[in-house]
Amino acid sequence: xxxxxxxxxxxxxxxxxxxxxxxxxxxxxxxxxxxxxxxxxxxxxxxxxxxxxxxxxxxxxxxxxxxxxxxxxxxxxxxxxxxxxxxxxxxxxxxxxxxxxxxxxxxxxxxxxxxxxxxxxxxxxxxxxxxxxxxxxxxxxxxxxxxxxxxxxxxxxxxxxxxxxxxxxxxxxxxxxxxxxxxxxxxxxxxxxxxxxxxxxxxxxxxxxxxxxxxxxxxxxxxxxxxxxxxxxxxxxxxxxxxxxxxxxxxxxxxxxxxxxxxxxxxxxxxxx
Length: 273
Prior knowledge:
273 residues; alpha/beta; TIM Barrel; 5-stranded parallel sheet
């Protein structure tokens, strides 16, 4: 069994405070050799670095999730850059745009003011995304992209960085046509436990259609545990279930999927051996 890389975890979250060491050991025993810890907010970046220190299996990726834009102050931008310059991070992220959870109206706020506040909120996300892309260019790193209900805007911004930075669309949930668009731009997609869900025909079609050099696998733990663990806390050991389903969808051997996604991930994140 070829050990596989879980390219997107949130092991720094408090969900794992009670048994984090056991979670990492279960992953090792299941044949998940490396775990990438992905940044989401200013307050937890040093925690990720601390967890990865002295543990070759844990690899840091630092950045600010668009859903946390309200927590990011002006001083947090140089803070992120300083950390990335001082520590061997594998990429910038997760960054991007998330227009799914629109801020609700304030008490007594009229429709026009609310609409203006939503546009300002979107603009703040777009500016934060651009900053992280520019940072990735300066540091010679790639980016992990979060995209939700913001497809056109995400592609427009990435288009301004064509040839200067590559992205992986993590937790990809789009169509085979959208896969083609991402790949034509030189970027990658990554699949989670969603590919094992019964109601995930579109994602399964995308997983079957993407070329072998265009995808990775991830758990995005503690979220979206794959079948047969659905409904429980997700953890990196479950990456094997995602690999198994990818093999089923693509008519391939599990080891072939593991080898393929490992090569793609190692090149993208500059992991080496």
